[in-house]
Amino acid sequence: MTITFDTSILVNYYAARSGVSSGGTTTASGTSTAKKYAPSAPWLPGAKTASNTPALMTTAVKKAMLGHKLIDENAAQLDLAGASSDYKKLFALYQGLDTLAGVVDQIGGKGLTSVDKDRIKSVFGKGLAEVTAYTDQLEMDQIRLTRAEVTDKAKSKLGVAKAKTDYTTPPLVSGDVSAPVDAFQGDVKFNISIKRVGVTHDITIDLADMGATPRNMSNVMSYINTQLSDAGVGTRVASLRIPGGDRTVQVAGKAVKVGVNPDQWAMKFNVDSGDTLTFSAPKTEPAIYLAQSVGNPDPDGKASTKDGVVLSQLMKVQTDTVDVTPPPQATGDANYVDGRVWAKDMEKTVGTVHATQVGSDGSVYVLADVTGKTSGQDIKGDQDVALLKYDSAGKLLFTRTLGASSNASGLALAISADGQIAVAGKVTGGLSGATEGALNSGATGSFATSSDSFVTVLNTEGEELWTQRRGARQNDEATQIAFGADGAVYVAGRAQSSLPGTTALGGWDAYIEGFKADAAGKVSTLFTQSVGSAGSDRPGGLVVDGSTLHLANNEDGHAVLHRFDLSGGTPVETASRDLGDLSGGEIAGLALDGGQLVIAGSTRNDSMAAGAVTRGYSGGTDGFAARIAADLSLNASDRMAYYGGAGDDRVSGLAMAEGRIYLTGQAGTDLPGEDPVAKKDGFLAELDVNSGAVGFSRRFSGKDGYATPTAIAIDASGASALDRLGLPKGLLDLSDSPQLTAVSSVRAGDQFQVRTGEAGAFKTITMEANDTLETLVTKLKRGLNYQAKVEIVTSGGVRSIQVKPLNARTILEFSAGKTGKDALDLLGLPEGVVRATVTDKKGKTTPADGKGAFYGLGLEKDLNLDDADGVSHAKAALATALGVIRNAYKDLKEAATPLSQRASEKAKAEGPVPAYLTNQIANYQAALDRLGGGS
């Protein structure tokens, strides 16, 4: 074995220790006699400081844990008489930050209890607050330093997309663009309705009119454009080439190119200015939209490693093929199941999907939990609620986040006939702009960790109209929601203690509540009423029909239906019916069909009291669906059917359209007529409760052989020839809301501060519900005393705000709002100083005002040690800040050193290493060669 030694290491070590780079003269023994122009820094080798001595650092950290201050200017010793006090301040800050980094290291210690960790987190928080206070008031003579960032302009990362003028389908053909396209074959007929200047042009596209002409991209585009031209409209369609790119395979964890993928081609509609397009088809079939989690949650079988990657997925399935041929299976379409139109994986930050609904325009709404940035939108806390809207072709149209400061889940979703959207769920911590109830847990205090129920109503653009937060002292949540015909919103949920105006029944109590907004948008609470048993209850379905409210409730393990009369304003219960013990099962949904209620769920009870059984119990946990008289009377027409096999089959969702019942959920070992697919399968089945017959049914799996359906919705006319072409049903939506509270997690009432000058007073900018980029520009101009150039800039089709000082003398500063109500971070504006700069002939950039250089530590106020990511981020942030201080010292030292001395130092640094040291290095290498057996 040969051991080699990089001699440059010793050379560099020599340069650092001998004084060659500092301009001193060196004797044969290596002693430096250089004149000092700056005091020695505490991080340099040989310095007897905590930053350079492990034992002293241990002592410093112990003192910090005992409550001692981190920053002490008196303890920062300077070894050069008459040196600027800036050094003392830099050194004191450096040692304080270094000690704080030592505190962070403690969180990784072995055998720590939760109490120990909480203490470390508390000390870190207090230390960070001390650093913030110190840097905020810090005044220096030769340089300027800020806790946050220093830039020459502030540009918001949050942008608002310009209205699009085109729509591109998924790829329709791969490789030979002149070849016939599978999606164009057969009966392909649809309509384009184009409204222009108040006139609607209805254009029929029927590819059968092409006769024997091959249906390839060029010919079909030409045919469609001819129809558009003949109608006198300016919109056109073209084929769009999508480059194939490199084809790679993974070898030893690295991507290795093995070829080139073929180009793909899609349709691109270029919409003429002023045109509004609507797509429809003469023949349609029902379409199911199913949300599921896919992926193995624990590949290595060790829960502690958290190595699973589970994704949320939205899937569209065509159930009938009588009138419409479904799209062909795409090449490489994984986990395909017959009838699947498309499957869209969501971002990794999207967690469980709790609900899906189809709007009257054919769009699909998905309600999910999110744990990080989603669709480019940051969230405030650990988890938030996201509402995602897709068109029927699977294209994401918008994402709306609630903006909770700590933690929130969206559990229920409803769409009104006029397109309003209602979301309900639970929230912990702050929720700016919400109307608070009398007993809410709140963001602070002894009940701050308890959840409250919330209800949010948005308009068709996804812009918030109102949010009500209602709760008890202990945990509560809203799990069901429905619109009334008059626009009232009805909610069902559960609470661990009494809500205002209710009496606790025991355990988790179910409740129903109503809200109504007047013409001015003022929301009134219509009623709040407890429902249920003395045990633990959970609502599983809510239906409102005129002045009647139906509730399906799991009451101490039993499936119980309630009927309320709302005509008097306060609910009056007129009937209830116990369907029996669910035996560990759950209620999955409730619907109204004609004069009957339809309830679905899971049970191990083979003798539920829900009417005549048309399909028997199979064993284990079975799914079930029942039709029951809407007045809850025992009726001869009541029917119930079980669905499942010998294993455990659980229903997680119910959807109904035109009298047809569809169930989805988790498959067990066997299902009637459906063979197992992989490790953990989902199912979708049409169940005729009256006859017990199973119609359309599919068993399927997902990534890694795992699929867990969580929500289902149906569009009775959602499948058509448009699916083959990747075109959406209904109005083509090409624009998004301009409201900043809609396109981000910013909520009305969130704030940040700005000022001009280093000693000027901060002014608070408060966000309002209807703020846009334009209104925020106006607020910034005023807040910065018209000393800034604030404008809207466009890049890549996205509009954002840019702020620059108006002149060389102007200093601008941005400061974050309070934790939980900060708008600055969500807008993507940098916290810190914005100043103008100039660059000299040598390429050196300096402040344009001619004063001392600005240094930004880049430290955020809300650094924390709450989890592994927070710890890693805190370590990186502190390391960066320490590096900034070292750079500031280097620049100060350079400025204090005469030019002649600097030139001499440079010459010596670039000159030869003394002969004695070269000989020493050669001897070291020879010794290593002998040890390793080398030559």
- Using only C-alpha atoms, the radius of gyration works out to 34 Å
Structural class, from helix and strand content? alpha+beta
Summed up, the helix count is: 11
Indicate the overall shape: globular
The pLDDT mean sits at 92
- SS strand fraction: 35-45%
The order of strands across the largest sheet is 2-50-49-45-46
**N- to C-terminal distance:** 11 Å
In short:
This protein has 935 residues and is of the alpha+beta class.
Walk me through the structure:
The chain has 935 residues and is an alpha+beta fold. The chain is built from 11 helices and 53 strands. Strands 2-50-49-45-46 form a 5-stranded mixed beta sheet, with helices on one face. The radius of gyration is 34 Å and the shape is globular. The N and C termini lie close together (11 Å).
SSE blueprint and pairings:
Blueprint: H1 7-18, H2 54-65, H3 85-106, H4 114-137, E1 144-146, E2 149-151, E3 154-155, E4 160-161, E5 166-168, E6 173-174, E7 189-196, E8 199-206, H5 217-230, E9 236-242, E10 246-251, E11 254-260, E12 264-270, E13 276-280, E14 284-294, E15 311-318, E16 340-345, E17 350-358, E18 364-370, E19 384-390, E20 396-401, E21 407-415, E22 421-428, E23 435-436, E24 452-458, E25 464-470, E26 476-483, E27 489-495, E28 509-517, E29 523-531, E30 537-545, E31 548-555, E32 558-565, E33 572-581, E34 587-593, E35 596-603, E36 612-615, E37 622-629, E38 639-643, E39 650-657, E40 660-666, E41 682-687, E42 694-700, E43 707-720, H6 721-725, E44 730-731, E45 751-756, E46 763-766, H7 773-783, E47 788-795, E48 798-805, E49 811-816, H8 824-827, E50 832-835, E51 837-839, E52 845-847, E53 854-856, H9 868-896, H10 899-910, H11 915-932
Parallel strand pairs: 1-53, 2-50, 23-25, 36-38
Antiparallel strand pairs: 3-48, 4-48, 5-12, 6-12, 7-8, 7-13, 9-12, 10-11, 13-44, 14-15, 14-43, 15-16, 17-18, 18-19, 19-20, 21-22, 22-24, 24-25, 26-27, 27-28, 28-29, 30-31, 31-32, 32-33, 34-35, 35-37, 37-38, 39-40, 40-41, 41-42, 45-46, 45-49, 47-48, 49-50, 51-52
Helix pairs in contact: 1-11, 2-3, 3-4, 3-9
